[in-house]
Amino acid sequence: MSDPVKEMKARIAELEAAMEHADNKNEALYAKIQSHEANIKLRAEHVERLQAELAKHKWVSVDDRLPEEGQNVLIYGPERNNGVPFSRVWDWKSRNAFNTHWKPISLPTPQDTEGGK
Questions:
Q1: What is the DSSP letter of 67?
Q2: 3 state SS of 104
Q3: pTM for the full predicted model
Q4: Looking at beta carbons, which pairs linking 55-61 to residues 24 or more positions away fall under 8 Å?
Q5: How many Cα atoms sit within 13 Å of 17 on the Cβ side?
Q6: Is the CB of residue 94 less than 8 Å from the CB of residue 72?
Q7: What is the chain's pLDDT, residue by residue, as a tens digit (117 residues)?
């Protein structure tokens, strides 16, 4: 005949072991979740930096804002230069009905070019 107390103690020991195993798994899963959350945060920050950089290079309507005098810009007008953007230094002559959009450009410095040494 089996001893019910011994069986109950054995079953309790099994359940305690299963609970400990589950706790260990939960801790490991929690650590993974924290790692993934940190990774997501880093990626979100990277996306924000990229979006800010991209915003610097978008076309700006001359109706919204004009560039500063003397600023190097890429100019676009659908009825100008066959619709092909062209670069120039912005000045008062740039303000006309043909130029509809612009975006800033940076020209290479002598240090940027191979012959500038």
A1: P
A2: strand
A3: 0.51
A4: 56/104, 57/103, 57/104, 58/103, 59/101, 59/102, 59/103, 60/101, 60/102, 60/103, 61/100, 61/101
A5: 6
A6: no
A7: 678 889 999 999 999 999 999 988 999 899 999 999 999 999 999 999 999 988 888 899 999 999 888 888 988 888 877 778 887 888 877 778 788 899 888 777 777 777 655
